[in-house]
Amino acid sequence: MKILIIDDEESIVFVFKELLEVKGFEVADNGVFLFSRFVEILDIIKKFNPEIILLDHSLGELNGLKIINAVQKNAPAAIIFSISSIVAGFSIEEDYRKYGVVHFPGKDIKKILNCINKVCLCAHV
Predict the structure, then answer these.
(1) 3-class secondary structure for 1-33?
(2) Which end of the chain has fewer surrounding CB within 10 Å, N or C?
């Protein structure tokens, strides 16, 4: 399973990447925290073709909703998980749900792994 992490916090990307790779997942090598421009993020999505995207909402000048639109056009099969701590329980969650996002694990790696495992099980059924 190919996973792309889009977050502007270098430490989050590093830790999640290491933990996911230990579990056997293929994680994009590019640290997306380095990419502040929309075009660069879109380029990684096209080249890597992820099956799962871990997406933060607050990305400097960008936000997760802008990225979701691009993902749906360029990697429509990708499943998006909102890993933003500000989404769950706020009205912004409704906006994400309108785009088909149903996984809101926040930045809790156990919850993220649980969601990924559910997606993997569904893919094999």
Answers:
(1) CEEEEECCCHHHHHHHHHHHHHCCCEECCCCHH
(2) C
**pLDDT score of 125:** 42
Which residues make Cβ contacts (< 8 Å) with residue 75, sequence separation at least 6? 45, 46, 49, 50, 53
The answer, as to whether pTM is greater than 0.85, is yes
- Average pLDDT for residues 48-65, to the nearest whole number? 87
In the beta sheet, which residues pair with residue 26?
2
Distance CA 121, CA 58 (A): 30
pLDDT score recorded for residue 23: 92
Q: What is the pLDDT of residue 5?
A: 92
Q: Which domains does the chain have, with CATH numbers?
A: 2-123 (3.40.50.2300)
Q: For the residues 77-101, what does the mean pLDDT come to?
A: 81
Alpha carbon distance 29, 87 (integer Å): 26
Nearest Cα to 26, choosing from 4, 56, 57? 4
Alpha-carbon span 108 to 44, nearest angstrom = 24
